[in-house]
Every structure is written in C-alpha cells, then in structure tokens.
Amino acid sequence: MKQNAHFRDLIEPYLNRWKFILLCVIAASTLAFVYLRYASNEYQAKATIKIKDDKSQGKLPEISSLQNYGLFSNDQNNVLDEIEILKSRNLIESVIKDLKFNIQFFVEGRIQAHEVYTNPPLNINFSTTDSLLHLIDTTFNIRINSSKDFIFKGIPQDTKILKGSTTQHDDIEGVLYDFGKNVETGFGDIIITPNIGQYATKIGADITIRIQPVNNVTSDYKSRLQIQTNELSSVIKLTINDNVREKGVLFLNKLIEKYNEDVINDKQMVVEATSNFINERLEGVSRELGIVDLTAEDIQQENKLTNLATQSNIFLQTEKENEAKITETGREIQLIDYMKNHLANNQGPSDLMPLNIGIEDGNIGQVAKRHNSLVQERERILKNSSEINPTVVNLTNQINQLKADLSQSLSSKRSTSQITYNSLVSENSRINSQIYSAPQKERQFKDIKRQQDIKESLYLYLLQKREESAITHGVSSPNAKIVDKAYASGRPVAPKSAIIILAALILGISFPIGLIYLLTLIDNKVHSIQDIKKTIDVPFIGDIPKSSKRTQLIKQIDYTPKAEAFRMVRTNVEFMLKGINKHSKVIFVTSTTSKEGKSHTSINLALSLSYSNKKVLLIETDIRVPKATNYLNVKNDIGLTNYISDPSLTLSDVTTSMKDNDFLDVIPSGVIPPNPAELLMSNRMQELFDTVDNQYDYIIVDTAAVGLVTDTLLISHHADLFIYVVRANYLDKRRLQIADTMYQEKRLPNMTILLNGVDHKKSNGYGYGYGKNPNTKKWWQRSK
C-alpha cells in the first residue's frame, strides 16, 4: 500500500495536468504535420561502379599474387585517387554545364512551388555566350497570360527591360510580351517559348525561372555528393540527395560518363604519342629504304648482276643464319637510336614515351610503362592542384629519374647490341673469306642487299606497330565499369515522416512532463495533506476547499463544498473535545504566518457551530491586524483591548450579538494598542475566560500567527483545542517545522492541523458536496 501511495504521489502532478500535456502533444503533432505538408521532399539517387586496375598488367604473377593477399598492395590508394577525381570540381562542373542545372523552373502550386526539370513548361534561348551565362545570378517571374503571350513580372534590379508595354492583369503589374519575341535584358536577349502537347503550359500559371552561377551550383552538388568504398575493394558507391528525383539520377549517370571520358582521353594521349613516334620513324625509314634500293639498282646495272637468285646458292646455310642475326641486331640498334632521340627531344615531365616498339629488353619496357603511368597520374592531380603540391613535386622527381634510368638503359643496351653486331659482322667476313669463288662485286652487292633487308624489315615492323596502335586507339575501354546504374526510389528520404511525427510526439510529451517535473522540483509549497504528513505527524482535522471571494461566509442552508467541509470540521471538533467536561469548550485558531485564512476559518467554524444551535462566542485576539470583524461587518470601536485596559468595562460592554444569528456573539479586537503582548498577559484575560465559561457552549478564539509574534503563546493555556491553519499552495513546506516544534514541545495544547484553500481539482481528494440544494431553482423557474 505504501508503494502504491508513493507511486500515486509521483504521478499525481502529471495526472492533474493531463490537459496541458494533451495540449502540448496536439500542438507538437500539428507543427509536425504542418512542416511535413510544406517541406520539400528529397530523393536519394544511388549508383555503383567498379574501378579497373590497368596498372597491375604486365607485372610478374608472383607479385600479383602477393598483392591479392594484401602484401605491398596499392589498389586501395588507386581507388582513393579515383574517388578524388570523381569529386573533382572540374568534373562536376562539366556535368552541371551539360545538364544545365544552373537553370531551374518552379511552377507555383496551391501550397508551394515545385521544380520541374524534365519537360519544363517554358523554353528559354539565350543570345549571350555560355561563358557569360554561367556567371548570371537572377530570377524571372512569369505568368502565362494566354497561349500567345505572357506577363513578365518581378523584374530584378540587374535586369533591364527595353521592350514591351506595362500592363495591369489580376492585380499583378508586369510587362506583357508575346512568346517567341526578343526580351532584351542587361546580359543579352532571351527568347521564351511555351511547351506544347502533353506538357503544354497552363494559362494563368505562375512560373519562376532561376538562373544561378555555375560555380555556386557546382559547390552545392559537390557538397551533397557522397562516395563510399570498402577497404581492399575497388567497388565505389555514389549517393546524392536532390529535391527532384530525375536530377539526382541524371547527375550520377552523367558524372560516371564524364569520368570514363576523362580516363579514355588520358589513354588516347599515350596511344597518339606512340602513333606519332611510329609515323615519324616510318618517314625516315622510307627515305633510307629508297636510297638503299637505288644503290642496289645502280650496282646491279653497273656489274650486270641480273640472276641474283642463282648466285645466292653459293652461300652456305651458316651464312644465312648469320645474316639473319645481323639483320635483327641492326634493326634493334636502329630502334634504340630512335628511342634515344625521342627521349632527348622530350625531356618534359608531361611527355609520354612510346611502348612496345620492338626493343627486346623487358627492363626498358617496364621503365617506359612506369614512366607513362606516373605522367598520367601527375596530369590528373594537376587538374585539381598546382605544381607546388608536394605530391606533384614528388611525381616530377620520379619521372625525371625514370627518364635518366631509361636513357642509361638504352645506352647500355645499344653498347651490348653494337658489340653483338660487330661480332656478327666479323663472323660474316670470316665466312665470306672462305668463299673464295665469290667475286668482289657480288660481296659489295651483298652488303647493299643486307642494308636493304634491314631497312625493309624495320619498315614492315613499324607498319605493323602502327596498325596495332590504331586498333588500340579504337578500342580504348573506360576505367569505370558500371555495376548498378543510377536509381532513385519514388519514396523521399527526407523529410522522414515517421521519425518527425515520432519526434513530435516525444517532444510533445517530454516537454510538458519535463516542465512539470522542473516546476515540481522547485515547488516548495504545501498543496495537500500528504505534504504535511511527510514533515510532521499531527492529527488532521479536515481541509477547506478553495472558494470564491464572493462566498466567504457559509449560510445556514448551504450545500456548497465549503459548507460541507466546515460541517465535517465541526464534527471532528466535537469528537476531539468529547472528553472535556466543563461547559465551555475553548478552541484557538492560529497559523504560521499571515494570510493563511485563520480569521476566515474562525468565523466560518463559529457560524457552523451556531447553525447547530450551539451557543458560540467568537473572540478576536489578533489585536495587531484584526480581520474577523471585517467579515461580519461588526464595528470595532470597542472590544477586547478596551476591556483589558479599562477595568470599568464589563463583558457585555464589548460583546456584540449578531442580528441574524441568536446563537453567535462576537468580541472584536478593539483599538490597536501600542503594547499588545503585555496587554494579553493581563489578569483580565483570565477573568474574561472565567466569565464566559458558563455562558457559551463553544468559545472560538481568532489568534495571531505563531510564526510571527508570541501573542498566541501567551494565552495558549486557555485553549482546550488548537486548530493550526495551513493554507494550501501558499505556505512554504520548510515553515512547517514551526508547527512541528509547537506540537513536539506541547506549546499548543491538543494541536490539530486544518488545511485551507485546497484545490480539489488538483489534489487527491474527491471534494465535498452531496445532494442538491432544495432552494435551487430550475432554469424554467428563474423567471418567476
């Protein structure tokens, strides 16, 4: 039971204010619904791509296997680099320009304007250049007047209208223009035409056209673009939120497309550099081959060597093999010289090296390929940075070092090839010397024929490489493989209705509960009998409900809650005093401080006792601030103070009988004295109580507040019962210690507590009042 009572006390402040809590919940819910009604929806578009790693091609399988297991892995760095490229301002700006996101069309609805991107209601053609258009920041307001003309209104300050006539239309001032006519503005002419067909512009529609600088739109989309990837994964997820569902999808698809175009352009730059190198070499080899052919033709004509096929049979098989090696070695020396010349002429950090031109040295090929990869990476970073960037400086140093290594490798390779070539030539001379039957002229022709074969072989090889380069140029693959195309669901991701409504409900409940808890926490007033019992253990005689000031006094026939409360107090008083054998029962009424209703309680208790045909005397001993006589409209010219200070006065001289109540007499306080405490200590007080003892059934004494003065304590020994009045919602709980001290020290005989001014609508009680007043007239009887 104690736990239930304690729980009841905890929730009582909230139950008493349930209407306030309900009002807050309704208000919060209303605000949430209004916000959801007018808030702009946001849709989320998503796309997934996979980054291809072309840099790992050509590496040894063992190294690739180690990298697949995470050792020496640089795949994650590659993916992070590609993410930075995807988020680069240049790439996003090109997307914004292609999709024309800097021009927006808003159609006014019944509640708010909504943006239309696909099939806008109007088309605008600008005469200004794109470079100027991308810097404009302005807004046009247009109302469709008819199918042929429109009203240009809300003209911004930076827009100067030169043509058209001012008109008044539906209280809207603007300039009337025909569709298709030039509208001259401060940034150039514009031509506005309506959409037709299914998406035709409605007459009377209000349309707002907003043009923003591309830089601002780019910054907005760059901040909203989110790119995510997992560790050791080359899969990238792109996400963006937009108020228009189609715009988010188009943005992501166009971003992927632009990214792939940028990567393909980088690859084509390498292919073009290789193709240009091969074409230059082809021209030189072609000229050299023509000279060798003319030389061979001259030798044949001079030496009359016409049947070369028959004469070639004299060569031995070993000589043929040696000739082939000499040809291969000579071709390689020529390629090395070409490569060295190209390297010497292209020393810049942005110059690319040709790949796979036929030099049989894996180290040279890998160095050239590594060189091109660093050049491309440097160029990509430079798109969003500068040459003083530490990363760019580091890459430049690496590129220069690779050029130096490549030059050294080519020189070393040429020296080796030259030694091999010289050895083969010496071997060939030895073989030729053994062919004693070969004439000197034929040997000369062989030398020319050998040069001719070398040039022809080199020429055919370069032609083959040129075709391979052309094929590579035509089949360059994009770097990003699309796993999932951009997609946006039909349901908006913001605002989230369920979360907002739930948050509103939580706020609507928690705010009033928190406020009530805070008020309860700092509230130190006495509100109910439970608050009193928590501090002191004094008999409780009853509580008086709060009532209107117009009904301060109860009546003999009275069915109000106040009257019933005083009847209950009267019954409890009779029970508390049933052991008193003397005729008059003296009841003192006091309180802790002023304005707690002790005078009000004294008078109404006296009235209630007199209505039960008991002879009652009301004595007003609060001679400092008398109030009882004001309630009863009794003159206070002569009273208790006069009786005490003037021995010649009798009790009848200061006693006033009530006109309408034969059972109630009153002794007012009298003139306010300068020494109230000393006056109450007079023997005349004892004489007064002795005199009235046999004349009345009850003596009600309205005393001063014990928490302010000692007047009541001076005469407390005359009391048979003390009613200690505590005013609800007024007295500080800490001041109940005064009442507890009075009770524990027995300074107030037979002390009881009466709670005054209780608001039963906010307290635990059910209130007073039972039955109906028989004198109450019905509504149809009030006119009689």
Automatic annotation (TrEMBL):
It is a multi-pass membrane protein. Its main location: membrane. The chain crosses the membrane at residues 20-38, 498-519. InterPro entries: AAA_dom, Bact_polysacc_biosynth/exp, GNVR, LPS_length_determ_N, P-loop_NTPase, Wzc-like_C. Its EC number is 2.7.10.2. Keywords: ATP-binding, Cell inner membrane, Cell membrane, Kinase, Membrane, Nucleotide-binding, Transferase, Transmembrane, Transmembrane helix, Tyrosine-protein kinase. Residues 15-99 form the Polysaccharide chain length determinant N-terminal domain. It is found in: Cell inner membrane. It is an enzyme of class 2 (transferase). PANTHER family: FERRIC ENTEROBACTIN TRANSPORT PROTEIN FEPE, TYROSINE-PROTEIN KINASE. Belongs to the CpsD/CapB family. Belongs to the etk/wzc family. This is non-specific protein-tyrosine kinase. It comes from Bizionia hallyeonensis. The lineage of its organism: Bacteria, Pseudomonadati, Bacteroidota, Flavobacteriia, Flavobacteriales.
